[in-house]
Amino acid sequence: MRGLTRPLWPIRYKPLPDELLSSWLMRLAHGHGQKVQTFCNLIFGNQRQVWNRDIDRLGPAWLIEELAASTGTHLDRARLTTLRGFEGTLFKSFKTSGHLPWIQTLQMYHRKREGFGMQFCPLCLAESNPPYFRRSWRISFKTVCTKHQVAMLDRCPACQHAIAFHRIEMGKAEHDRLPSMRHCHACGFDLGAAIGVPPKTFQCPDALRWLCEVIQRLDSATDDELDVDPDLLSVYRYLASMMLSKRGAGLNVLTAAEIGADAIAFTHERRLSLEGSDLATRHQILLQAAWLMQDPASRIEAAWQAKAVRYNHLIKDFEDMPEWYRTSVIGQIERRPYTHRKPRRHPSKASSPG
Ligand SMILES: [Zn+2]
Ligand SMILES: [Zn+2]
Prior knowledge:
The chain is an all-alpha fold. It has helices at 2-5, 21-31, 36-44, 55-58, 61-71, 75-79, 122-127, 205-219, 230-243, 249-259, 279-293, 296-305, 323-334; strands at 108-109, 112-113, 144-145, 150-151.
């Protein structure tokens, strides 16, 4: 009802398909001929900080409601510009801080972004007019644009800076021509002109095919409906994340060999998360995990038989372990002679969650 009782803005762009909130806000500012910071100060005042947080993840109600009401956009549609809509599919329940499964972190530091959490496909960016950033580009397993069959990018190919399109006007005078979101904020390179290269397959096109099927489901998601089994995704993420950690080191080596890749050597000095890792690392680890996912019961059991992974590491800290994984994967190992495996869990640890 608010849209009926307040004046609409002169420019009323609606969100484009799969558009991110931050991208929509940026287009609206530029549509009004203003730098995004000036526009935000004008609309929300100096007290509301927009760009020192991950608005696409947090989806502040005051921001979404303002944009919806002032552009005549349905509130439900406006809400779909944020990553919260993946609750129940990519992650069980939304939280404002800490790692959110499958959502790439931006690693905000003041208004800067130190992490490589904003990915893009140069061809998608080049062919859309106006250029804009997609919600699905923030998803960890989207390492390939299945439409163009090219690898996604997570940094400017010219200067290697992370993507921060809200900073492209930094240092520009108010009357300067507003730069397009297609350009790198740090060096001005036209990101839409970046060369698209085919995704790495190593020696295992089947693993890439498996991953691309998951990505295609994300791409064809309508509104909040994502046609992918949350249980499958949670096992996939569990295995991929494990391979980034010390306890998954053996599994990392084994699966890298299976897909014909050199295993990435991790120092394990600091905890590396799937959602905080760069695109090249993530893509390879996701392919390795995809190889396991193609036949999880027998491939995981074989890895365990080869002592590449310990039994208790396959269940450790696995919250909400899906029933099929519990019965077919873990159950299969449990049915093997007891001497092969370590005790399931030390009695004194049985009650502790981790
Ligand atoms: Zn594309
Ligand atoms: Zn650059």
